[in-house]
Amino acid sequence: MQYVSTRGGVQPVNFEQVLLEGQAEDGGLFLPEQYPLLTDRWDSLKELSFRELAYEIVSLYATDIDPNALREILRDAFNSFDEADVAPLVQINDLHVLELFHGPTLAFKDVALQVLGRLFEHVLRNRNQVLNILGATSGDTGSAAIAGVQGRDGIGIFIMFPDGRTSPLQELQMTTVREENVHCLAIDGSFDDCQRILKSIFNDIEFKRRASLGAVNSINWARIMVQIVYYVYATLRYNEPVTFSVPTGNFGNILSAILAMRMGAPIRRLILGTNENDILARFFASGEYKRGKVQQTLSPSMDIQVASNLERFIYLYLDGDAEKLIRFMEEFAKRDHAVLHQNGEVDATINAQRVNTDETIATIRKTWERFGYLVDPHTAVGVAAATQAHLEGPVVCLATAHPAKFPNAVDQAIGRTVASHPRLDELQERNARKIRLPADQNKVRDYLEEHVIS
Question: Within a 10 A sphere around the Cβ of 39, how many other Cβ atoms?
Fold first, then answer.
């Protein structure tokens, strides 16, 4: 399998290069040249466990990884999960929930990042290379990325997060990790500031090469690839097409569902749920991509105004026309505003919904009262969006984080203390460490220069 850049400025590369580079040198994002179809094998796939299915899908894209090594990487990654099914599908009356929070940091991002860390280590060892991961997080990516690579040979990790704008537990999951290869950079700004710094540093190709920088955010194709697995796994549990409701921030999770559809998974529709940071809901309703001011909400992982993975969607929407994509992205970079088309709804398969804070709290409370089932505020956005959409057939809501990661919001909604998890409770006893930096790419670069491994 070969990969191309959305910007069209580099020659096709193999999976290992995509894994280590993260972002293409022309500033674009990698996508595979083709999407293998699963339709001819659908019935046989129903018999597979999550781990077996993961191998069948990932091996189609990671074709330059030794098959035996890949099986072991996937087996070892998913053995770190509390549930044997990895991503159990729970049905409580008419509520269908895909639980993706049973990994080490209790968030959906563990599914891909536990694999990613092991892939990095395998490839680096074979190449006798080192890698310094630079990431930006609005909440869960940072801790999941750290959990995937902490203490691993040949890897340093530097995670930027908006100081004071993640939940206290999300911050503790990052800052209490003791391994010396972990650096937590608290940026005085928003997640979008962190992401801007990230992109600026990656666009300096000479520095990126000198510092051996790689990406762990969802700009790294490997994360998108692994996330395809749980959409296919869930769809296989039904005998009719399924709709997924996905709480959405950086567009990586729902993009994996879009690619599962391209592979032939019988997905009827996708519901895209946003909070008050609704740039994506507005875009899919109108074709107009317009930046607003970042608002802090109860679902901080979705407090994003610029969704980096939307570039991949637009590339697919434009049938791979890199020149049109570049014009769109340059217009947005210049004016914080760009128009994909003037004809209203962008994609009939994507139903975009905006869910505000009051609706989020009400959904947490109603889901508890009606089903005795506790959801975190991000999952609540997806459940509320599904309710608003009124679509036919089974609708599966993605549970993206354990409710105990957001106890203030959950307990506020329920009216008493209900959200806890022993793994999180013991974080309070640990010493935290973080480096505070201004939202200045030069200051971040200076820190990297001093601390990268070589």
Answer: 9
Pull the structure tokens for residue 209.
């090469």
Q: What is the count of structural domains for the chain?
A: 1
Does 21 have pLDDT greater than 80?
Answer: yes
Strand pairing partners for 3?
Answer: 13, 32
How big is the CA angle at 75 (ends 73 and 81), to the nearest 5 degrees? Answer: 115
Q: Report if residue 405 sits inside a domain.
A: yes
Tell me whether residue 72 is in a domain.
no
Tokens of 328: 């769109």
290 tagged catalytic:
no
The answer to whether position 27 is within a domain reads: no
3-state secondary structure of 172: helix
Q: Are 298 and 292 a contacting pair, CB within 8 Å?
A: no
Dihedral sign (CA 53, 55, 57, 60): negative
The C-alpha atoms of residue 111 and residue 325 are separated, in whole angstroms, by: 30
Query: Of 46, 109, 208, 366, which residue is the catalytic one?
Result: 109
pTM equals 0.94
Tell me the pLDDT tens digit for each residue of 47-86. 999 999 999 999 999 999 999 999 999 999 999 999 999 9
The overall longest dimension of the chain from CA atoms, in Å, is 57
* Displacement of CA 159 from its chain's centroid (Å): 15
Who wins on pLDDT, 304 or 260? 260
User: What pLDDT, on the 0 to 100 scale, is given for residue 218?
Assistant: 85
Instruction: Note the pLDDT tens digit of each residue in 135-169.
Output: 998 777 899 999 999 999 999 999 999 999 888 88
Write out pLDDT tens, residues 80-123. Answer: 999 999 999 999 988 999 999 999 999 999 999 999 999 999 99
Give me 75's structure tokens: 């087996």
Residue 325 is assigned to a structural domain of this protein: yes
- Specify whether the CB–CB gap between 132 and 158 falls below 8 A: yes
Tell me how many helices (H) and strands (E) the chain has.
19, 15
Tokens found for residue 390: 């009124």
CATH number for the domain that contains residue 331: 3.40.50.1100
Torsion from C-alpha of 388, 390, 395, 401, nearest 10 degrees? 0
- Asked if pLDDT for residue 216 goes beyond 90, the answer is no
> Which residue is it, tokens 């749980």?
230
**What stretch of H or E contains 195?**
helix 191-203
Which domain range does residue 265 map to? 89-105+222-421
Distance CA 311, CA 394 (A): 29
Q: What are 434's two structure tokens?
A: 């973080």
Residue with tokens 């299915």: 53
Distance CA 145, CA 220 (A): 12
